[in-house]
Sequence to fold (188 residues):
Amino acid sequence: MSVEPETTTGPRPPSPRLGLLPMIIFGSRWLQLPLYLGLIVAQCVYIVLFLKELWHLASHALDLTEQEIMMSVLALIDVVMISNLLVMVIVGGYETFVSRLRLEGHPDQPEWLSHVNSGLLKVKLAMAIIGISSIHLLRTFIGLGSQAGAQAASMPVDAVMWQSIIHGLFILSAIGIAYVDRMGDDRH
Fold:
């Protein structure tokens, strides 16, 4: 006689009965649903922006300089990274704060989703913000060295310095968040 292992996809045990106040408080997490749906709409806006930038690049590829092409590609990467950030917030936030998505065993389940918690989500978001900031900083530096970056070339040195300082602060913040999250994991 073989004993089948217990799975998480089987029938769930009945939920405990909650009193009225705990039920209202616990149920209030669903108020975040419109926020996540709004972020999905923002994701659609980024798709339009990506396609617009891609069309501009493809339709003017023969007329653009190498620096202009590089700036357009960096703009595309920037849109993709912001879109990835949106996916992390939408999927990870919903899974962490609203309700389980029950994707166990689904072939497209993101690897990181199986062990997501608010601490890990903060670290991933901080890393995504650093990546986005890096792209912006790189675009500024490339723009400073090219004729194509007339807007960046006219950027005051103070603005470039502050952009670099803010980027450094993002990095320090991410290190701090990761350190605090790791301290919390070590205690458990």
Q: What stands out?
A: The two ends are 38 Å apart (CA to CA). The chain has one domain: 29-102+109-187. The longest helix spans residues 66-98.
